[in-house]
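3.2 Worked example (two chains)
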Amino acid sequence: MTPTTQETMNTLPQQLLFDLPLRHARLQQAMANANADALLVTLNNNLIYTTGTVIRGWFYLPLNGTPLIFYRRPLDLPQRLPGFTTIQISRPDQITAALQDHNHPLPSRLLLEGDELPASEWFQFARIFTTTELLNGSTPIRLARAVKTPYELTLLRESCRRHAAVVATFPSLYRPGMSDLDLSIAMENASRQAGSLGLMRAFGGRMEIFMGSVLCGDNADTPAPYDFALGGAGLNPTIPIGPNNTPLRSGTTIMADVSGNFTGYISDCSRTYAIGSIPDHVREAHQLSIAICHAVAQAGTPGTNCESLYNLAIDLATQAGLAQHFMGYSQQVKFIGHGLGIEINELPVIAARFTMTLEENMTIALEPKFVFPGIGAVGIENTYVVTPDGMEKLTICDESLITLTP
C-alpha cells in the first residue's frame, strides 16, 4: 500500500529510525551499570533522545529486549515510528497491565528521571509499581547521552555549519547608535531567518535561556544567578540574563553569544567585536582565548580528565597575568566548557573537580572568556566533537576581534 502524503510527512527520517536502537543500547548499558532492569522516561528532552520527537506519553526500555512506547498524543505516532511497539493509553496506571499483556515482567529496579521529574509523578509511579524499587536515573541517562550516535553527530554538524554561517553575518548587522538590545534583536532575527528553531532547551529546573546573550561593556560583568560563564542583567529581574538596553559606545566590546538550534541539536558559538579603539592588553586577552581553545582542543583526546583540561586553561590565563579577568571579573565561574546536544548544558563539564574522562564522539563547547571593567568581555566560544586526535572544531567562522565603526 502506498502511504498517503500526510503519512509520508509525519514519518520520522529513516536515518533516525536506524539510529534509535543505538541510543537504546547505550541506555541499556547505563542501566546495567546502575544495576537496574528497566527505564521509564516522560520528559521532553529524553523522549526526543529515545523516540526522535516530543510525545505526550512514556518510553519504557527493559534491560534486555525492545522498548514499548505508551502514548496519549499524537494519534499518528504509530505511523511516525514504524517498527516500534506503540501502545495508546490514557493514564499512567495502565502501564503495568500493558507490560504484562506484552509479556514484559514488572521490573524490580526501575530508573526514573529523578532530578527533573515532579515529585507528584514520582509518587504516582510508586503507587503504580508497588513491588518495584524506584531509582534516580538522571545521571545514567545523561552519561549515555553524552556520547553522540552517528545521526546525532550528523544533526549537530549541520546545526554548527548553519550557525557559523549566520554568525559570520553579525558584524554587518551593527549600526552606530544601536543599543545592545537592538543588536540582539537583529542577530536573533537573522538566526530565525536562517532557520533557527528558536528554542534552546536546558537541563535543570533552575536553568532558563533564550536564544543567547549580547553583552556590551560592563553589562558583561553583571553577576548571573544561572550557571553561565557570563550573564548580563537582562531587561527585567524575572529574566536576569542578556542585554539591558545599554547604548553601544566607542571603547567597549560586544560579545555575541547567540546559540544555534537548526536541527533539534544545539550548537554554541560566541564572537566578540570592538567598537572603535580598545586597549592592546584587551586585544591580547582575546588572542589568548583563541590560544586556550586551541590548546584545550589539542589536548582533549579520549581518556583525558576534564579537570586537567580546565587546569590547562587556568595555567595559561595565570601565566599571562590575566587570572583575575578569566571567566568573569566580579563573579568568576569555575568551568571553561560544557557538553551540548539536545540541551545546551549536557555532560561532560570542563571544570574544577570534575574528573569525568572524555570519550570519542562527545560534543563540547569551549568558552574561555575574559572580562575587563569599563570595557567588556572578549574571547570566543566554539563547538567541538572529541576524536582520537583531539577535539575537532565544528563552528568555523572568523574568530578575530573585529572592529566596528562608532
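3.2.1 Second chain
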Amino acid sequence: MSYLTLCQKAVYETSIGGSGPTTVVGQNGQLGNMVVWVREAWVNIQLMRPNWLFMHKEFTFNTVIDQRDYVAADMSITDLKLWDSNSFLIHDPDLGYTDQGFIVYQNYSDWRRSNRVQMEARASDRPQSFTILPSNAIRFEPKPNKIYTIEGEYKKSTQHFSLDADEPTGLGEDFEMMIVWLALTYYAHKQNAPEVLEQAQTKFADLLFRFEIEQLPEFSDDFAPLA
C-alpha cells in the first residue's frame, strides 16, 4: 500500500469521517495529524529492532588500484546507515570464488595506533584488513595492488514517507497494516479514544509478533515479543 492508501485506511478506522485525505501534501487538522502519525509509525517500526532482516542489504564492488578509501557512492549505495563489519569478503576475480575469504575488521582507534604512521609509504598489496572511518568511509590496509572484488552487507537508512505513492520498502503486503494500527494508537491517545486504542494495540501486537518470527535472525538474543 502507498503512503496515501495507508492514511486513508487509518482514517476509515476512526470517527474522523469521510474517505480520508486525497493527498498527503498540505493537510492540516485531523487529516494532517493522521498523515504525520502514519509517517511516524513507519519510522518507529523500522527502529523497533536493531537487527530486522528487511533492513539489511548486500553489496558487491571492485576496488581500484592504489585507492585505499571508498565511500558508499563508490559502491552505488544510496541508503547506507551502518556497515556490517563482520560480513566483508574479498577475492581476486581472476581466480574466482575459490579465492574468497573474510577480510578482517579493525576498529578505527586500533587502526590509528597500528597503521596511521607512514601509511602512504607502504607498498600496495592484497588488502588484509579494513576499518570504518568516522565519515563512514571504508579504508583498506594495505591499499589494493590490483582489482579485487569485495562483498558484504550493510544496514540501510530509515525510510521516511513524503509522497503519496511512497510504499514501505521491505515490509511486505502481509504486514502493511502494522503501520495503520500503530498510527491509530497515536490517534487514540490524542483523542482519548479507549475503544480505538484497545483494538489498535491488540491488532498491532498480533502482527508484530508474527513479523518478529519472520524478520529476526534465528536464535537471536533479541528474539522476543516487545512488551
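3.3 Remarks
Residues 72 and 80 are 7 Å apart (CA to CA).
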